[in-house]
């Protein structure tokens, strides 16, 4: 029998602790597959913060260091500057990167630090109780906006567009993992972002729209439908910036 599907070498053979229907498991596998395809596992270091990303060191078969909430870009900067021979990437959620870590990511991106960012946007604080995040959609109910988020609570931040507007980053894209086709596109995008770092081009940043059924109060199927109907129209998918395409233009 031909083997057509197997666990990536960069993933441990263990049970995941993500909630049923959570997209983090899919994104974790995409990252592991990208590392395997590029054959960089032995020189890779991941930086993961507080939040759902805290589980990552249990799932990835490579070196992972924890950082304080919102501080992965600072830790990644230190590691990459001290050991430029290593491949370094951060794995962050929207509460981490767009709230407490906003200054960290913008400063690192503006400097063009040569590490990669995998940013999982599920529009809510998933691990700590479903509170409103800077990416929460207007009208979305959370534990801190039980009647729906209003404009006075802040409009949802489009982080990919913000990062792409800076001169330092080399590659910025937004993808989703709500369908098999989108999962394939997301994998291709992560591989391309990782290649940018290997070529020394500066920061590469991939935002991935994800489902959080428990935080949204929806079933897994309903959560995937919400990504398609609500998140993607506001957070459009695609490559927002690429050093190569910029030069070609």
Based on the model shown, name its key terms.
single chain, 39% helix, Rossmann fold, 249 residues, seven-stranded mixed β-sheet, globular, alpha/beta
Draw up the topology in text.
Blueprint: H1 24-38, E1 44-48, H2 56-59, E2 63-66, H3 72-82, E3 87-93, H4 94-100, H5 102-111, E4 116-121, H6 159-164, E5 171-176, H7 180-198, E6 204-209, H8 213-216, H9 220-234, E7 238-242, H10 243-248
Parallel strand pairs: 1-2, 1-3, 3-4, 4-6, 5-6
Antiparallel strand pairs: 5-7
What's this entry about, in short?
The chain has 249 residues and is an alpha/beta fold. 39% of the residues lie in helices and 16% in strands.
Task: Provide structural commentary.
Strand 1 (44-48), helix 2 and strand 2 form a beta-alpha-beta unit. Helices cover 39% and strands 16% of the residues. The chain has one domain (24-244): Rossmann fold (3-Layer(aba) Sandwich), CATH 3.40.50. It is an alpha/beta fold. The N and C termini lie far apart (48 Å). The chain is built from ten helices and seven strands.
Write down how many β-strands occur, each being a DSSP E stretch of 2 or more residues.
7
As for the CATH topology, it is Rossmann fold
Q: What is the assigned CATH homologous superfamily?
A: Thiamin diphosphate (ThDP)-binding fold, Pyr/PP domains
Give the rounded overall mean pLDDT: 93
The helix-strand sequence is: HEHEHEHHEHEHEHHEH
Oligomerization status of the protein chains: single chain
Distance between termini?
Answer: 48 Å
Radius of gyration of CA atoms, rounded to a whole number: 17 Å
The helix fraction, in percent, is 25-40%
* Reported CATH architecture: 3-Layer(aba) Sandwich
């Amino acid at each position: 029998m031909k083997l057509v599907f197997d666990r990536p070498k960069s993933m441990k053979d263990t049970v995941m602790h993500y909630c049923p229907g959570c997209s983090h498991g899919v994104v974790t596998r995409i990252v592991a597959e990208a590392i395997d395809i590029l054959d960089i596992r032995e020189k890779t270091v991941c930086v993961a913060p507080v939040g759902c990303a805290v589980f990552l060191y249990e799932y990835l078969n490579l070196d992972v260091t924890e950082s304080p909430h919102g501080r992965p870009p600072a830790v990644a900067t230190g590691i990459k500057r001290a050991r430029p021979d290593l491949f370094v990437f951060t794995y962050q959620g929207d509460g981490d990167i767009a709230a407490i870590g906003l200054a960290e990511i913008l400063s690192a991106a503006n400097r063009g630090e040569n590490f990669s960012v995998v940013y999982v946007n599920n529009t809510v604080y998933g691990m700590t109780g479903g509170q409103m995040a800077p990416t929460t959609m207007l009208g979305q109910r959370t534990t801190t906006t039980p009647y729906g988020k209003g404009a006075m609570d802040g409009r949802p931040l489009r982080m990919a567009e913000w990062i792409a507007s800076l001169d330092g980053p080399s590659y910025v894209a937004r993808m989703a993992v709500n369908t098999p086709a989108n999962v394939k596109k997301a994998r291709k995008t992560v591989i391309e972002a990782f290649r940018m770092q290997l070529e020394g081009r500066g920061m590469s940043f991939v935002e991935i729209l994800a489902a959080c059924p428990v935080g949204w109060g929806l079933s897994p199927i309903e959560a995937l439908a919400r990504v398609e109907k609500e998140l993607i129209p506001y957070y459009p998918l695609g490559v927002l910036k690429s050093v190569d395409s910029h030069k070609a233009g």
